[in-house]
């Protein structure tokens, strides 16, 4: 399959790229500052240009999304808009603009996260964004068939515990290799409208 991988140079994107290419897929990597193609997903015109450069695809995979982390009493309307633009609208646009660019039975895989179901202090904007993406996936699945859409919703990565583990007390970590397998399940499987929680 020809797969467009967004956020390919990040921690998760690197693992997903390695896993998909090891399975024989042709993967076009996309990042803000690196990869085969460059794109800032918060600029909707750049998403259009990205699809023009990528050509016809079998799957679109997202491993990118930016949200601010602050106490809820300090979050401003601009912070909430930044979370919406950085993780929700950017991925919705990947789907909306990608529908005519992806094969009839192709797929979209978006990224959410544990904070949609297990909130933490300073994570309200992230929880809002993740929940919105998951709701969108379920709704879009009933309209875009036979194309498919799913989301991967991991907890903190085992490989990132040293940096972020204190923010997720008591939450079991997940190995990046296991998260990458959820992307394989979404891309190569037959399910749609699913949120793969890890």
TrEMBL record:
Gene3D superfamilies: NAD(P)-binding Rossmann-like Domain. It comes from the Bacteria. This is Short chain dehydrogenase. InterPro entries: NAD(P)-bd_dom_sf, SDR_DHRS6-like, SDR_fam. It holds the Pfam family adh_short_C2. Belongs to the short-chain dehydrogenases/reductases (SDR) family. Keywords: Oxidoreductase. It comes from Streptomyces neyagawaensis.
């Amino acid at each position: 399959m020809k797969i467009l991988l967004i956020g390919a140079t990040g921690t998760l994107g690197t693992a997903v790229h390695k896993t998909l290419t090891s399975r024989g897929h042709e993967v076009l990597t996309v990042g803000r500052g690196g990869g085969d193609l460059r794109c800032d997903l918060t600029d909707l015109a750049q998403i259009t240009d990205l699809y023009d450069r990528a050509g016809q695809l079998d799957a679109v995979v997202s491993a990118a999304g930016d949200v601010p982390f602050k106490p809820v009493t300090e979050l401003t309307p601009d912070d909430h808009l930044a979370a919406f633009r950085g993780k929700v609208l950017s991925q919705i646009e990947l789907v909306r603009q990608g529908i005519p660019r992806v094969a009839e039975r192709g797929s979209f895989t978006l990224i959410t996260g544990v904070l949609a179901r297990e909130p933490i202090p300073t994570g309200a904007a992230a929880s809002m964004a993740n929940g919105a993406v998951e709701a969108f996936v379920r709704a879009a699945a009933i309209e875009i068939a036979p194309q498919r859409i799913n989301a991967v919703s991991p907890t903190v990565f085992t490989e990132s515990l040293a940096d972020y583990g204190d923010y997720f007390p008591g939450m079991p970590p997940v190995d990046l290799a296991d998260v990458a397998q959820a992307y394989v399940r979404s891309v190569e499987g037959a399910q749609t409208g699913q949120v793969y929680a890890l």
